[in-house]
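Re: folding output
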Amino acid sequence: SLKMASDSPESLMTLCTDYCLRNLEGTLCYLLDNETLRLHPDIFLPSEICDRLVNEYVELVKTDSIFEPHESFFTLFSDPRSTRLARIHLREQIVQDQDLEAIRKQDLVELYLTNCEKLTAKSLQTLVSFSHTLISLSLFGCCNIFYEEENPGGCEDDCLVNPTRQVLVKDFTFEGFSRLRFLNLGRLIEGVNVETLLRPLASLAALDLSGIQLNDVGFLTQWKDSLVSLVLYNMDLSEEHIQVIAQLRKLRHLDISRDHLSSYYKFKLTRRVLNLFVENLVNLTSLDISGHTMLENCTIPSMEEKMGQTSIEPAKSSIAPFRGLKRPLQFLGLFETSLCRLTHIPAYKVSGDKNEEQVLNAIEAYTEHRPEITSRAINLLFDIARIERCSQLLRALQLVITALKCHKDDKNIQVTGSAALFYLTNSEYRMEQSVKLRRQVIQVVLNGMESYQEVTVQRNCCLTLCNFSIPEELEFQYRRVNELLLNILNQSRQDESIQRIAVHLCNALVCQVDNDHKEAVGKMGFVMTMLKLIQKKLADKTCDQVMEFSWSALWNITDETPDNCEMFLNYSGMKLFLECLKEFPEKQELHRNMLGLLGNVAEVKELRPQLMTSQFISVFSNLLESKADGIEVSYNACGVLSHIMFDGPEAWGICEPHREEVVKRMWAAIQSWDINSRRNINYRSFEPILRLLPQGISPVSQHWATWALYNLVSVYPDKYCPLLIKEGGIPLLKDMIKMASARQETKEMAR
């Protein structure tokens, strides 16, 4: 078969890193005083391994709900003599001041802190300890890192009301950061003087000032000989800004894009501004002007525009100012601008909304720092996947998975991403997906269900799970899936459609799985949850899919699982059975599901006495004549009675109906069935049927069992002949043929 790119096994490094992080105590560490992690004294790890341990740890805490963070994790890296760190990426609430403090002796070269809102000005001081080695630093979205807590002096009462006040640190600068070249200050808090902060830096190569409003950027010219990358996303520009940018002649990457929904911008792009960039920034390979309104027409006449093969040659560019480029750009950001729909765009990669390629480029470029843009791009992908066909499926899936993992708490991304996943995993794309990729999808879907109680996300996630082979593909997360679904079904207020999908999934998850799985799910409260749903439906007098699926799920989960059968009886399952029969006398599917379940209960010897009441025996006897769902209801009723009869006359503790009378009705029922009936039933084992063969107490039970085997092996020989042989049915049948007590027609059938 075709080997898929994403299907290669994980590297040994990845597997070991993951294993060590999940088993720190058993591998690298021991517990001191039962709470603090300590590194074993004989362990020495180079930066290649330590960097991975830290970065993977952050990833696991963020994306794997089962993974427990350790309070003292970062202290493992406090001593550079045993553990070396060089390049680390920390994000969000995972990291606090004391964590950075713990690693302050390390010679960090690269430190990315993304949206670390818990970091305060204490961490600014810690940064100084890395100043002699740091080359690359990101403080993107660390909105409190310039705040310190100040205890106000004076009266006691005031201290109670306002124990700590946040004060902006004004005196910090990058003095002494002699090697710093790459700096991201995106979404820096207002009030910090960027110019003063940056002035000590001798030669900056890349600067990101996303989401900061600066009216004067003249100071940027001090790095006009070194700056190769400048990002001013969402800065409202003016003529002054443009003049400064035009002087930064070494620029290779310029991003002046904006989110056109976020606020009002006075600035409009003109042909002159684009010309200025093309003429002055001769090294430009990447330009992003997404979200901008063009004040005037920058395009060539439409007749000329439509002519010839699509070209990326600057000379043929549909955007007139770009005809001055020496060579095509590597990247051109035109997302949410009218320019992206033109024919000839002089760039190898374009972000825009015109087609799948442009949309995927947008998701790829903006996921990390611009969720507000990414969610709109994913929404466009959703439309493409829904209406047309995705031609770059693997890339699309990978990008959506990354966005969902990266922005676990962003509602817009969770809603659009989970909807896109539903269309990207459906059956027409199935062949193109590896096991590994499909597992990643399941992981992010379950993360979404866990962190979002929001109806749309829950529905999208449940629908996406329906695209998988159940239970096989969900086996590796079996407990977690069941817990999440039961959680949805146990909520007091429920969305009808989600309820229906969740019950369907629960039913599929307990169908054809091992008994230990069924027992585990039973212990999670599965039986109780299904009975509650049935109770609600009965109260509303509705027999819909939820009602039928709930009984079907109970039928599946009680199959050869006595504990679950007992739970069914203990939680008044029989009372609900009788009420449903009475309320819905015509519902054939329902009757079949209920009797299938009672067949499972009747197979458990210890529970049969609870079925031995006049009311139940009369109900089962009357159902022998049912024509519902072919022979299924009659067959299951007869099965229940066959197990009861097998306990002998002394177990018949009721006066009405008489045992002989019921036996007579059972014979009549079996003789009325067509031996070639196709069946609506699935046996994993014949054991409960085979145990009725070697006995003389109830010939009718023996006959029912023989009929069942005969029908199944003759109608479905490929499936059931091997099962009969494997479970030792042949010698049992041979012995029965020799029994005096067996009826002649039973022996004929057995032969």
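--- second protein (sequence, then structure) ---
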Amino acid sequence: MSKITTELLLERAVPRSTRLRKIETLNLSKLQLKTGDLDPRLFSRLRHLQKLDLSDNLLDKFPNSLTLPDLRVLNCNNNKLEDVTALKQFPLLEELTYENNVYLTLNDDYKVIFLLQNLRRLNGKDITKLANHVRCVNSRKLTSKVTAHWEKFFRDQLPEKHTAEQVKSIKKKFLKSVQTNVVYGPSSLSEFTRWRVKMIAEEFLAHSLGLELNSDTEPEEKTDENEEESTESPREAAEDVAQVVHIYDPLVTVTPRKRKRNHSKSSPGSKRSKTQSNTEEEAAPNPRKSKPLHFLQCHSKGNSREDFKTQLWSCVFEPVLDSGARKDPIVSSSRTVATCGGESVCLIDCETGTVLKKYKVATEEFFSVAWTTLTMEISDSRKKAHNILAAAGRRGIVKLIHVAADFCYGEIKAHKKPIATVCFSPTQETHLFTASYDKRIALWDIGIPDCDYNFKASQLLVLETASVPLRIALVPTCPEQYLLAGCEDGCFAWNIKLDKGQKSRPFEAIFQFPDEESVTTSHRVDGLAFLNDDVVVSKSSKPGCIYLWSWSRSFDAKGKGCQRTMSAVILAELEWSTTDMSYLTLSTCPAREYVFCGDEKGSVWMYNLSSYTTAWSSAKGKRSERRISPTQILKWPELRVNGEQPPEILVNNVVADPAFTYLVVLTSVNITAIWKKS
């Protein structure tokens, strides 16, 4: 029997009512309601309902026919919603909130903004400007790309006199191709882009070419509601990546000439829209040529060899167990690297290209991985050091994997929203930081599992952020006292010392950076790492520039009070791509004094800064007047997979091992590339 009755609706009306058709405001919060409790026949009698509160329930979706023609305000906070497209049945909706629904992402925000043309506020924020972009600019750009894709690749394939079977075949091929190859906006919105591209493509076929809309639409892939975890053997993992990838052109290591900035305005698209090349002339190739060792496609959804959509986000080299407590970074890493993206985490031998292990969770999308070494009790009170891998992502859950045992021994439900990044303390092996889309950075003690894998995790600290934290870094000279974070709206620092007593803390400092002719604190910082004990490398939303700045000269530890504004003392700027695409992150190799950053064309920009660091370490070290050009740019080679070229390739992340023997590149098209230094 449904929990909702006529009597309950009348009682929960605000104010109480005697007739359903007179109710304008209704509070159905905190009733443990599930989707099946929303009876369309009963709700259809609420003809004049304008405000509905369904917060703090157990709803996973909306029925498609609630028939609330006058609904203007809807609150769905703290449910289990997995999809928002059914909300299109409320066309007059003006205000919508669905915070703390762990399965909803930024892609769902964009979907609902497009579907509800009258929506003005989403999750408490005015979306007027964003809505105009989503409904007009984004749609116009995608329509143009879809049309161009048809004209270039498919128009001539359809005969003037065509049969129904030919129409069905060409439509199926076109829809598959256009969703794979039309790319626009940030990679974090790839799901929304594919959703809109499919919609636009179907409308294009129906209206421009007279092909029947949705006549043979393929059913959407659905994920089993029950979480499926699996750890694959090396043989099974190898079978997953038996994808043939041919290199038609060898990789050329190039030394770029001086480049000039392109000052033309880019189109008013998304932050990750593609911009034109900023080079006045092509870089001169170095006579010495080299090739990457391996191209791997090991994160495919459902092990599909056709998957060029899965985004790869994070990689980190496994520490060597006998490295003397990680004192020497050169010998503290093996040739094994952990990578994550989509539903899986992989362990790869960089020398052989073998996928040693693969861990999958069918309902997850992994964004970050991190290693730690724990001394665990094995038997008879004997202890042994083991490497533990933490992996986290969209579901806000940290998975703890004992790699040698091929076993995920536990999980921590760390946040109600996705986790953007994780990292372990270099001095406290059980201390794990998790940065989430809930605008919090949490410090956890994950504990040490016993011989039966029983463990106890506890939250030690919560750092409140003003916006979503994207990258975090502990200050090398005082990793137990200060943490730095690059966020959607700036670069912040916190005091994380545990003896202060205060468990929840605001940020202690926000840093100002140059912005055209002034300075600003408000900018997205999507790349952050330390080059050495003092030099910070950060990448912001300012196109074509990576900053190097001094932590010690920028942060005033003697100042009093929280939330102080401090000017970053800039040491130098690195010349980089002028793209306005976000989330192409950077990394460093401190032992070799290198900085790496990928771009929107599949290239890797490498900077050897060893000749600059001595001068910067001086108290009187001056800022380099000119931007520092890359030492090398590794160009992405022409690839063909089963005879076809992959779509546009973005380098989401690039990481070197501490000895700079291997370079691992993660892309937006489910390809991991591994280079070896000659």
